[in-house]
């Protein structure tokens, strides 16, 4: 009965394809009237002082029928589509308006925004971003862009030139998911980046695995020797936070400190007695 099996598989593949296709179309609609979209903000903590210096903006999509769709189910496919620039335009616009609101309330926080390989390939990306930042009178220094190694390696020469322009404006650049790509160290050294974010897959087990602990320790050391500030992602316990602090890791982000929060909740969290 192998033919049956094949037809079952191809039918399933068909449905996956159709589901993705509809999701992409639905997301394109959401981008045009973004009341289904919002940003949440995950605090980033200075491990020495325990203070929150900023937050990573993360996109949330409330589908009218399917409800909350996880970012991993719609962002990667959107990033490979013609909607990649609209996605980032939405996120940057919303993040910059939020920064202005916080700035007016006297809060000087850095916001980090995730960008993709295709954003870096857009010829007008830097100019559009600069115009939005200037329009809302936000200091460039308070905006950080998170770029993965693989996004950079997509077209290294052009990405490097774009990152250099951003860096010249004063925008901070972070290398996201560090350790998961396969960029050479020689290349990393040339990048006009300020921050390295160690991927959570390495951070998660440092409490139990001596090998992971050695790996993260050397990533921290290496990044610092190359002049980067180091942020650990996915910190889920006090033990992990303490180990990272002992390693000299500067900042951390993770469920142990806070989950990604709605803007209003974020303010509440910031002003709670045990944080801020
Ligand atoms: P990322 O950039 O690596 O973002 C960090 C992800 O880890 C977020 O998932 C966050 O909620 C999650 N996280 C934070 N702390 C912990 C922790 O302690 N433990 C665990 N297990 N997870 C933690 P989220 O929001 O589901 O986003 C997933 C990915 O989707 C992001 O990974 C990023 O690649 C992408 N993404 C999210 N928002 C945007 C966006 O606005 N633009 C773009 N281009 N990509 C985005
Ligand atoms: Ca990120
Ligand atoms: Ca990451
Ligand atoms: Ca990721």
3D architecture notes:
The protein has 276 residues and is an alpha/beta fold. The chain is 51% helix and 19% strand. It contains twelve helices and nine strands. Strands 1-2-4-5-6-7-8-9 form an eight-stranded mixed barrel, surrounded by six helices. The longest helix is centred in the first third of the chain and has 31 residues. The N and C termini lie far apart (64 Å). The model has no long low-confidence stretch (mean pLDDT 92). Bound molecules: ligand C2E and calcium ion (CA) (3 copies). The site of one calcium ion (CA) has 5 residues, from strand 6.
- As residue ranges, the low-confidence spans are none
The outline comes out as globular
In total, the number of strands is 9
Query: Could you tell me how far the N terminus lies from the C terminus, measured between alpha carbons in angstroms?
Result: 64 Å
**What's the pLDDT, averaged over the residues?**
92
- Determine the structural class based on helices, strands and strand pairing: alpha/beta
Quaternary structure of the protein: single chain
Order of helices and strands: HEEEHHEHHEHHEHEHHEHEH
> What's the alpha carbon Rg, rounded to whole Å?
20 Å
Q: Treating each run of at least 4 consecutive H or I residues as one helix, how many helices? A: 12
- What is the makeup of the main sheet? 8 strands, mixed, barrel
Bound molecules: ligand C2E, calcium ion
Trace the largest sheet across and list its strands.
1-2-4-5-6-7-8-9
Proportion of residues in extended strands: 15-25%
Helix content: 40-55%
Protein name: EAL domain, c-di-GMP-specific phosphodiesterase class I (Or its enzymatically inactive variant)
Domain EAL: 20-274
């Amino acid at each position: 009965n192998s033919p049956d099996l094949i037809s079952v598989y191809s039918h399933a593949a068909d449905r996956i394809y159709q589901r993705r296709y509809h999701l992409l179309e639905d997301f394109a609609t959401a981008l045009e009237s973004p009341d289904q979209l919002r940003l949440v903000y995950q605090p980033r903590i200075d491990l020495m002082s325990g203070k929150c210096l900023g937050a990573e903006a993360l996109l949330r999509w409330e589908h009218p029928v399917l409800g909350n769709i996880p970012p991993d189910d719609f962002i990667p496919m959107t990033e490979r589509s013609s909607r990649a620039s609209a996605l980032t335009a939405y996120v940057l616009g919303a993040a910059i308006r939020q920064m202005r609101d916080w700035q007016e309330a006297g809060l000087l926080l850095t916001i980090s925004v995730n960008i993709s390989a295709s954003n870096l390939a857009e010829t007008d990306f830097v100019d559009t971003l600069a115009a939005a930042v200037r329009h809302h009178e936000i200091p460039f220094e308070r905006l950080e862009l998170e770029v993965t190694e693989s996004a950079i390696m997509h077209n290294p020469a052009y990405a490097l030139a774009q990152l250099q322009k951003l860096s010249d404006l004063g925008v901070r650049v972070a290398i996201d998911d560090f350790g998961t790509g396969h960029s050479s160290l020689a290349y990393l050294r040339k990048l006009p980046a300020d921050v390295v974010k160690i991927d959570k897959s390495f951070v998660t087990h440092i409490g139990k695995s001596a090998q992971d602990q050695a790996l993260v320790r050397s990533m921290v050391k290496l990044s610092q020797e190359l002049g980067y500030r180091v942020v650990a992602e996915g910190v889920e316990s006090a033990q992990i936070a303490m180990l990272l602090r002992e390693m000299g890791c500067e900042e951390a982000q993770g469920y142990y400190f806070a989950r990604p929060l709605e803007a209003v909740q974020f303010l509440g969290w910031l002003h709670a007695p045990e944080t801020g």
